[in-house]
Amino acid sequence: MYRPQIKVLDCTIRDGGLMNDWRFDKSLVKDLFSGLAKAGVDYVELGYRADKKQFSTKDNGPWRFCDEEDLREVAFECDTKVSIMCDVDRTDYNAFLPAKDSLVKLVRVACYVPDIDKAIHLGNHVKSMGYEVSVNIMAVSHALEPDLDEALDQLAETNFEMVYIVDSFGYLYSEQIHYLANKYKSKLPGKEIGIHCHNNQQLAFANTVEAIIKGMNYLDASIYGIGRAAGNCPLELLLGFLKNPKFDVRPVFDLIEKYFIDLKEKLRWGYEIPYAITGILNKHPRAAMAFMKGVHGRTFSEFYEEMLNVDDL
Amino acid sequence: MYRPQIKVLDCTIRDGGLMNDWRFDKSLVKDLFSGLAKAGVDYVELGYRADKKQFSTKDNGPWRFCDEEDLREVAFECDTKVSIMCDVDRTDYNAFLPAKDSLVKLVRVACYVPDIDKAIHLGNHVKSMGYEVSVNIMAVSHALEPDLDEALDQLAETNFEMVYIVDSFGYLYSEQIHYLANKYKSKLPGKEIGIHCHNNQQLAFANTVEAIIKGMNYLDASIYGIGRAAGNCPLELLLGFLKNPKFDVRPVFDLIEKYFIDLKEKLRWGYEIPYAITGILNKHPRAAMAFMKGVHGRTFSEFYEEMLNVDDL
Whole-structure pTM over 0.90, yes or no? Predict the structure, then answer.
């Protein structure tokens, strides 16, 4: 679908980092950035900017912090912009240079619906320093309708550029994407709406296509679908679908061949029955990730039963 | 989605057999049939009934032929019906008992659009012996529109129960499924429409859900998505989505755990870049299957380039 307004954001390092504590080699990240620039990807999200008072640099690789000097070793100024993500309550407000002195162009603030006031506060701070700002409302499949409505109404009053629908649990299917797209569009006139999907039910690419059909222009994807647990929308499928001639999928195939086939063997993101179960049941994947790591003391059916009976967020 | 008319057909052995020459152990097939009966699956397709004059029983396991005595070793009369598939030009018309003497209830005739006359001829023969009959029009993403229209008009004149949309190459996405669903429904009043998807672009489950939304009631799926190349719609996801209380996904999880995790390691169906490439480009997967089997003399990008320039069916 050729719609020049469409922007693709690659979140390989940021979301994939949830599987290896952001310990990607700089040589890989450097190859990735230049490959994605060749592929015509609009934004590359190179990690989080987490508060070093809360997270140790010993337990986490550099892409959990995205220091400017680390970013400059792997990325450069070009049409492909660098994005970073910040979680509310986990961010040091003093960790941002003025945008004109930073390689970063976009800061995405991640929050749950109940934290929307904090997200707006952090977003305003970052905006005042000159960055593009997105607010990514996570776990929207757990949001209470009136709370989500109020959050969107508040976001409508901001000068942030984008608001994202985030299906953190890989629960949603097309009709629900359509419903949320209509809601976000009507509540947020003048803002761009984005979509970030998880692949627990093999619906991440499909739901991203539904978002395109509904007029959403900001699309998250990751190389070979890397990301927490079941992972994300595979970038190679998204670029294969988009018909804008500025995109070229070949550099993504090259990166997969060079790095991501082996990484997948090691990190094991992607479709697995425990992730499918938490997706089907609209649950956080953490229990499924524990199941995948542990000796299988339980069967899939026992895990399913347990998840049916658990009431978590 | 609770719609009692919905029927689920498991094609694990029939389509999965394309990956191992139908050499599934009888103990597995027996467990599978009774597990799927417990799961509430409506039809289990246990294989092809191929012509033994054309295909050797030495080179192919029993489920390429589905002799009645083999079927009776693994299946039994119950609410879950046995289905078999027949290809036009590869079927011995004398290989069918009268339906009342057979364990088989449904015969599905597979053909490409240009073979529709042969399919109707074979379907009429099978129908006259008392079976339910479906015609499965394969590779619909390569069909010429007027030829497909004429095929459907001819099928409308038959007394077959079902006609299937088959996305053999895993090329279609939601809007195309909607388009075909509208066409099949308007051309085939009174018949049930079915859907059989391939998962090259991780859209098999998503497209099956779109088919449900469009009122199609016959849904193909396979355990853990087993099937040729990228495989099919995973049965466990489909049963997780359907809300009809007659379905129970647990026996499917048990079968996956007992057999299909190991089988997938061995047979390697599922999402792979070469299959994604043929799906994106609307090509038969045979070149991708050769790529997967061979020593990788070529890179993914070279394979993509080659597929861009090839004009095959």
Answer: yes
